[in-house]
Amino acid sequence: MNLCLLLLISGLCLTADVCAGKVCSFQDVVDHLNLTANGNRLTTVRPVRDWTVPTVVQLDISISAILSVYWKNDFIFWDPEDFCGIQHVTVPRHLLWKPDLLVDEKMETNQPDPSEYLMVKHNGEITMDINMKVVSTCAIDVYKFPFDTQKCSLTFSSALHTDKEIQMVPVSNSSSRITKNSQARMQTEGEWEFLNVSVHTITQDIAEYGSYDHVIYTITIRRAPLLYVLTFIVPVLFFLTLDLASFFISDARGDKLGFKVTVLLAMSVLLLILTDTLPSKAKKTPLIAVYVIVVFAFMLLSVLETILVAYLMERASTQQARGLGSAVTCGRAPSPEGLHLNNGTAGKRTSVVSGCVCGEDGVRQLETLPMVTPPDPNSEGAEGHCLSHLLRLILQELRTGRTQQNPALENGPASYQNTVVRPINTAFFIFYLLSTSVFLLCLFLHWIYW
Predict the structure, then answer these.
(1) Which range among 63-77, 366-380, 398-412 shows the weakest confidence by mean pLDDT?
(2) What is the distance between the terminal CA atoms of the chain, rounded to a whole angstrom?
(3) Is residue 361 part of a domain?
(4) pLDDT tens digit sequence for 174-233
(5) pLDDT score recorded for residue 295
(6) Distance between CA 183 and CA 189 in Å, rounded?
(7) Angstrom distances, CA of residue 100 to CA of 158, 201, 343
């Protein structure tokens, strides 16, 4: 009754019904546990009444950087009925003992927020939630980049306590539950897509120290390949298509070789970009590197084929020009005076035609040509007509000989292109198209499905 009067005077109680009940606070529980006055007993040593009994530390994680840890303190207990039904309180982390958890793959130290609290239940169970950012090492396999799937592990263990003192166990062995909770907390999407989390426990024996429990969470993520497909893989296919289309450019035009070299230089720029994207060291050559190098090699073969065809056409043109020049030089007929020989008959001359032709070694050889019956010497222009007829015979013989040696030059460069150049281009184009198609098909099947 005196307590009610005191509360009424202080203005904390407004009705008699409230005064009839017992008023409790969290501080009452803290005072009952004697946390502030005798904190050393609860912080310095592992809180067990029997040192042979291990402390079970339960772990539960969420990929949104939340680590939940559960354990039991044997020195903490209260009856909720004595404190108005209070079943748990929150106290600062420094008031109670905490397990020394380490992440084996951790590379950078990131201390948690010092304002964090522990949740203490009436039966001594303690819950610690840590918002932490872990920068860890992870073995990356870029063999199927950018269609790669990576698995990274987070291994939790105790630095000082063996498995006889602290037993590390996961809260839930269900990977689907952890995956579902993590996906619900993740609200941002970046380069990587979260797939699932699996958990398992191992015991590692260390000589002279004992065995330690380890809880390993394996996180599986997949790279989002759309950006790399649009900015790298598709442009390489465009360049390959342009190189295939260049076979329809006429070989007589000089810009075909320049076009192919330009496409080859553009591929070189993409190779530089790929060098900056991929890591410098890898166990196996990435498929994307194989893809670019093989396409680059096909384009190089295409340029070499174009150079070969240009060389053959230039050589054919040079030989034709040289042959025509030789025909003009060697086919020069002797003077009209040397064409008339006296047959011993007074007043009459018999014309025996002799001319020079070019041998295989280019040396002029004197050769008797068929008899040409000259026109009537009394007719006007008889000698000029005889000379022109002789030149036509010489030119005809030279053309016949060159056609028999090289039939491809019978009709000039156009005939040579049809008989020699076009079959080479057709055969190489078929080989080029079939080889690139088979290579790309096998590569993409292995890239995506295997």
Answers:
(1) 366-380
(2) 82
(3) no
(4) 677 777 777 777 766 678 888 888 888 999 888 778 899 999 989 898 998 888 899 889
(5) 93
(6) 11
(7) 6, 18, 132
271 within domain boundaries: no
Which tens digit of pLDDT belongs to each residue from 397-429? 776 665 555 554 444 555 666 677 888 888 999
How far is CA 441 from each of CA 286, 301, 435, 444, 450, rounded to the nearest angstrom? 17, 20, 10, 5, 13
Tens of pLDDT, residue by residue over 314-326, are: 887 777 666 555 5
Helix axes 234-245, 255-277, angle to 10 degrees: 170
Token readout for 355 is 């001319």
Encoded tokens for 49: 């009444």
Could you give the CA distance from residue 243 to residue 263 in angstroms, rounded to a whole number?
A: 7
* C-beta separation of 295 from 435 below 8 A: no
Answer whether 101's CB lies under 8 Å from 58's CB. no
Residue 105 falls inside a structural domain: yes
Report the distance separating Cα 69 and Cα 126, nearest Å.
8
Site of tokens 């230089």:
265
Averaged confidence pLDDT in the chain: 75
- Residue 293 tokens read as 């190098």
The two structure tokens encoding residue 294? 């093989």
Q: Which one is predicted more confidently, 407 or 143?
A: 143
- Which residues span the domain enclosing 215? 38-224
Residue where the block lists tokens 């000089």: 254
Alpha-carbon gap, residue 119 to 417, rounded angstroms:
89
Model confidence pLDDT, tens digit, residues 121-141:
999 999 988 777 777 778 888
Who's near 44: CB < 8 A, 6+ residues apart? Answer: 97
CATH number at residue 50: 2.70.170.10
Please tell me the distance from the alpha carbon of residue 351 to that of residue 75, in angstroms, as a whole number.
142
Number of domains observed in the structure of the chain: 1
Structure tokens at 436: 């690139």
- Output the six-digit token pair for 31: 């005072």
Dist. CA 287–CA 278, nearest whole Å: 11
Whether residue 137 lies inside any domain: the answer is yes
Q: In sequence order, what are the beta bridge partners of 72?
A: 125
Strand partners for 129:
68
